Structures are given as structure tokens and as C-alpha cells.
Amino acid sequence: MQHITAPELATWLADPSRPKPLLLDVRENWEFETCHIEGSTQIPMNLIPIRVSELDDGQDIVCVCHHGARSMQVAAFLERNGFSNITNLTGGIHAWAVQVDPSMPKY
């Protein structure tokens, strides 16, 4: 798996020459409702094994959680299941709120 910082992800998302990744937010519903990166797809971590077929194993996927630990576990699971373009957001949504979007609620 690869790792990406919040500022690097922001640059990627703002670059019209690069295909957008699937932002896979693996946090719980209440966390996602509190704050999320625009355009994210939410599948809570515990549902990934039963919903993995909804994901395209050829697409770039950036896994997101609160601080980066749960998303790293999901990224590893996806790689074990044949996904090859997996990246984990280092520091999670908290890093995004601190480094990219200070107006985003923090919890």
C-alpha cells in the first residue's frame, strides 16, 4: 500500500489532469456526518468484507478514517483481496482538517 499526506491528496484532487481516486471513508455513520471530504464514499470498516464487491479493483482507492489506523487495516485487507492501487491517508480526516481545511469540524 502507498501512503499519502493530506496536502498531497488535496493536490491530487485539484489536478484536472489526474483521474480522481475513490475516497473510501471507513468511519462510522456519526463520524462521516460530523465531517468528510467532499465526494467521499462511506462504507464503515466492519461492512467492508461484505461490500467489497462494490469496489472496482482497478481504480485508485484512497482509504480514509479518523487518524489513519482503521483505514490502514482496510487498505491491507483490500490488498490481500486483489486490489493493487490502494493508498492510505496518513493522519486521516483529522490531518485533512488541520492541514487542508481548517474550517472542517474536528472531533
Automatic annotation (TrEMBL):
Residues 17-105 form the Rhodanese domain. SUPFAM superfamilies: Rhodanese/Cell cycle control phosphatase. SMART domains: RHOD (SM00450). This is Sulfurtransferase.
